[in-house]
Amino acid sequence: MQEQTVLLVGGPDSGKTNYLGRLWLAIRDGVGKIEADGVPNDLEYLNQIAGFLLQGHFAPRLSGDVTRNKVIIPVKISHKADTLRHTLIVPDVAGEEWMSIYRKRGWSDEWEKDFSSVTGCLIFVRAESAAVIPAIDWMAWASLLPNVPQEIPDIPTQVVLVDWLQCLRSVFVENMASYRPRVGVIVAAYDLLPDDQKELGPEAYLRSNFPLFWQFINAADDLLDIRVFGTSIVDGDFDADPDFRERFLDSSPTEAGYVKYASKTGLQTSKDLGLPILWAMGVESIA
After folding, report:
1. Is residue 285 a contact partner of residue 225, using CB atoms and an 8 Å limit?
2. Closest Cα to residue 233, out of 201, 251, 209, 255?
3. Among the ranges given (25-29, 176-180, 191-195), the one the predictor scored with the smallest mean pLDDT
4. Which of 49-63, 128-142, 167-181 is predicted least confidently?
5. Is pLDDT above 60 for 49?
6. What is the pLDDT confidence band of residue 177, given thresholds at 50, 70 and 90?
7. Rounded to an integer, what distance in angstroms lies between the CA atom of residue 214 and that of residue 162?
8. How far is C-alpha 145 from the geometric centre of its chain's CA atoms?
9. Which has the higher per-residue pLDDT, 204 or 141?
10. CB burial string 200-225: b at 16+ within 10 A, e below
11. What gap in Å lies between CA 260 and CA 199, rounded to an integer?
């Protein structure tokens, strides 16, 4: 079976782990085009993070000594009239480790080995997350002169996103010069956006809230094939809406959630939470 590694990229509270838990529920129960074709290497970890969702809770962030889990799942994929068999490798890395890569301006030999086998990647940013650092208001900053605070503000999230994408582009171009590698940008917790913003699509959200990152995405499309997706893993907020939790627990969890994306015919909605993974693997095309 062919190995396909899809890297999940994102800082703290960006939605990577919860997406993986929801994806595993879909794969385990055969809801969507990706189905399990054997036992994952770390079934306990997958069941643990999926278990939080099944109980009406979001999975907590990776913490302590657990900074990385390389999940390996044998899968079969329904593709046109065929069934494709792959080994899906999804490294789930704590957001703090991704931030460490940014601050240290480099990564370890272990990271270098992981990158050599990456097929595509998904970069996560969670809508309405308190962990998102907004762009610096330079006009307001200048107005403080000459009493500028001694502490420099935290680096804006969009600057970090651009840096990660630059690093990934460099690695991809070096290892896979024969084709444009696929990078999916995931706007997680898409259901938290106001209705008027949802209707405009995830690309419009990026353009309005992360303009520097949006501009870089468009400038990098000569070397990378980039798509923007909006994802909702349960279509609601367990923490802010107790009534939603009750409705969710009374329903089928694998029917919850959706993926939003733009096509030539307009904004589309898919109930297959594996769509971004399929697209990053090169299995699925989106016109």
Report:
1. no
2. 255
3. 176-180
4. 128-142
5. yes
6. low
7. 9
8. 39
9. 204
10. ebbbbbbbebbeebbebbeebeeebb
11. 10
pLDDT (average), residues 61-83: 74
> How far is residue 26's CA from residue 196's CA, in Å, rounded to a whole number?
29
Q: How far apart are CA 280 and CA 119, in angstroms?
A: 7
The tokens describing 210, both together, are: 């992360």
Give the lowest-confidence range in 45-59, 66-80, 104-118: 104-118
Q: Would you say how long the chain is, in residues? A: 287
β-pairing verdict for 258-263 and 34-36: unpaired
**Of residues 36, 48, 33, 47, the one with CA closest to residue 78:** 33
Architecture of domain 2-281: 3-Layer(aba) Sandwich (3.40)
Lowest mean pLDDT of 55-64, 170-179, 236-245, 248-257, name the range: 170-179
Q: How far is CA 80 from CA 44, 195, 259, in A?
A: 32, 34, 20
